[in-house]
Amino acid sequence: MKLYDIISTELNVAASRVAAVAGLFNEGATIPFIARYRKEVTGSMDEVMITSIRDRIEALVALDKRKEAIISSLEERDLLTPQLQTDIDGADSMTRLEDLYEKYRPKKRTRAQAAKEKGLEPLADFLLKQISADPMAEAEKYISEKLAVESKEDALSGARDIIAEMINEDVQIRETTRKLFMQQAQMVSGVKKGKEDAAVKFKDYFDWSENAFNAPSHRIHAMLRGQNEGLLTVHVLPDEEKAIEQIEKQVVKNNTPCAIQVKEAVKDSYKRLLSKSIEKECIGELKKKADETAIAVFANNLSSLLLSSPLGQKAILAIDPGFRTGCKVVCLDAQGKLLDHDVIFPLQGDGNTAAKKISGLVKKYAIQAIAVGNGTAGRETEGFIRKMGLDKIMDKNIDVIMVDESGASIYSASQIARQEFPDHDITVRGAVSIGRRLMDPLAELVKLDPRSIGVGQYQHDVDSKSLNTALDDVVVSCVNKVGVEANTASRQLLSRVAGLNDTIAANMVKFREENGPFKSRKDFLKVPRLGPKAFEQAAGFLRIHGAANPLDASGVHPESYDIVTRMAKDLGVAVKDLVKNTERINALDLKRYMTPTIGMPTLKDIAKELANPGRDPRKAFVSFSFDDTIHEIKDLVPGMKVPGIVTNVTAFGAFVDIGVHQDGLLHISQMADRFVKEPGEIVTVRDAVMVTILEVDVKRNRISLSLKKGQ
What is the rounded CA–CA span in Å between residue 127 and residue 97? Predict the structure, then answer.
């Protein structure tokens, strides 16, 4: 119960709610399921709060495990005392716990241990009393040829080593020193001698200093990366004199000759032991906070990308552009099935042949939209297609849309792509991926490792385990927000549904292939390995359009079907006549259907689903096109206003594709006329924006942009 109380205080939520969420996790419940279908139990917590509870439970469990390991180590060495046991039990953080253990941690042979072996501990105790006595006279007693104490200076030096280690291991001193570091430490970086040329990308940090714990995440990561590459030196330290003075106030009692010896030990302890230990901790803490920021930015970007607007089920002609090797063209039906493929060379003087091929494919497959990858030759290929006048050929407007192809090459060479298209090469697979991304970004992007999509910041520098957990949470959340059509979804998409995994997803696909499409949600229970618990978690997020029961295409969970049946019966209609009938739904008195386990939050959700079953939460697709007058960076002029698409959001701003093969930087200071704390307040990935060109550096291939109205 103590664990739940701690989390309750930290997150400002009732301990009973925390316990309830923990209980659901213990039963195998997933975050999307808890947030969507157990609102009465959690008090309508959202996924963010539920995730926070999960993460804190895991952290506190890890803390308890570390306590057990430390206690076991102390017991084995007969060092555990009742007071130490109490202190360890009461430690509320890993830092506090490790401070308590510092004194007892098994160490390599230290200078203090060597001094103790020479019998100098009593001399150290004598000095610490700081009485008015001559330390040299006392030290003379410890001169011993046998113990290799050759002089009074040797004896005092050893005693100071013992005191220095005692200071380093003192819990209170470590806490106050750590506090000073966190308040006043400067993060200082410099280039290593002789590394100036190799470190040119870190030029901003050749002579840099700022308050460490106010430094933004991207600068922390940049400096630490430079250090890891052996190009920069990085230190996180407060003013040395202040730090030593603070410790002296805690240790030194007066100005006697003995106290002067203790002062020397304080300096040595700080310089040789304590500063290095706390500095390492602080760098670790700075790295952790920078990681958290970078991971949060990455997660938000990924969510925006996965939930970007789908064009929907339309016949697509997709083009993977290229100069030397030509443009790979594929035709997909409305379900994304590959119908045809070819290669054209419109940018090598063979425009007529290319135009004939495109026109023929557009007519043959009744193409409704054309997707063009935004990589090399993308703008040129887009321009060629637009000039063809396909609207005259088809007697209707055909949108030509640039599609972000980040990661498409990785998909095309993956095992997933080889399984989908064993008889086609990577060029065909890449073009198919571009077309499918236009139809449904979520369904296609779940096939990729999120880190290959290109919307992260310092993603290779952050803790990989934390990053993977956060990104996995995002993918699962997005998939379940949208819902999944059980009869057409890929194995990869199905595996991200709450309660399912890759094995069950593969079994579902195999079941469809062998038995035909699922006719009702009850059919899911016939799938091998998909038992009652998996069904409970997944069923509400899986859709079956065209099922006999219209609720099977909605977000109403099968456990609530009886409630909907009662509602329809009370109105004297069939369930199918209640679905999408706003007048009848509004006539329901939801309070009549409350039970000890089903309350108003769930009933309101049911009513919302009945009104608009299986509603896709993503925004409607809006076609976007770049400025036809600009194609290269040299076409840009300061003051020019151009349309663009946000490709990445970072802690310091956003990158915008304006159609010149080089993203421009929209710095956080140029996002609005007001102060902006986080770029995500203003823009998200895939947002269409109208930006002003501030500066153009053709040599360095850099573009500065602004969203300010006055620009």
Answer: 29
